[in-house]
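Sorry to interrupt, but I need a hand with the structure work. I would like you to pick a protein and set down its sequence and fold. Please put the record directly below this note.
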Amino acid sequence: MSTPSIPRSVLVVGGGAAGNAATILLRRAGIAVDLIEAKDDWNATAGSGITLQGNALRVLRELGVWEQVERSGYGFDAVGITAPDGTVLHVSEDLRTGGDELPATVGMQRPQLQRILIDAVRASGATVRLGVRAESLDQDDTGVSVRFSDATEGRYDLVIAADGMGSATRAAIGITERPEPTGMAIWRVATPRPSGLTRTDLAYGGPAYIAGYCPTSESTLYAYVVEANRDRSTIPADSYADEMRSLAKHYGGHWPEITATITDPAQVNYTWFDRMLVEGSWHRGRVVLVGDAAHCCPPTLAQGAALSMEDAWVLTQMLSAADTWDDALLQAYYERRVARVRPVVEASVQIGQWQLDGVRDADVPGLMGRTMTMLRELP
């Protein structure tokens, strides 16, 4: 691997999974990194749970945090399909997409994963500024001058936009793609884990398209129900627990115990499913997109965080190995990633569309199997 002959500096915009991963890996390569995050709390308490497939675990191992993730989460290797009444119809072994030495899946409390990544960013020596946004980007052939919301300025060789689906950086550099709703929405909540619940189970049918749960530790899980999207403004925030219970109460098995704990509306999250794939390139000049800023899809394959962290891993590998950071390098990053991301986005959307259309003989297992087999390969 060649080493840049001059010091390099990078601004990472956004401190989610992709931005944190990019920061850790760039610092390991000896590159100076400033990370800015708009939220004062670095999103350290946001979210309920997250399902991490093996290819996400592979990146977390590369980041040096796999042992903490393993201790904090709940690993398992199977997924169950149930009827709405809780009858188990089928249990299948999940493909270990991160390699045989890693579990197929780890469920985690999302805030716990974020705290682990925050600690790793802090330990990397990166400069971190919270509650700060990039207000303007002025590019030339040698770098990017950035004016920040705290009235400071900086000069960087590259800006990595990891500021999520609603990326202001994406819009600022003239990329016009925006997330589009797929027609579905999800209710999520973190709850205690019932005794005997040791894997993800998915129920199709009933009043929701999907009712599922994922263990996130020895004592916790997150549960979710998927329905047609509704105008969020018509759903009072103080009714969120009631709304989720009204769907969840129709499911059997572990669901009655789970449903009984859904009482605090502040702990229930309601989100629409969106899709987006930026086409042609993921950069303009010396500003490049990673993660949800470049692509997003419904969580039907649980690949959002995995693809985002893979982006960061691939981009930082390419930057670390290159003597010149130029248009050709960033275009090569896009072409390498889009070949892997596109089939995941399309499969994730297709699975949901089959449900919206009421297609009863859809080959969901086949599509999932083909996609996961592809993801077992290194990104």
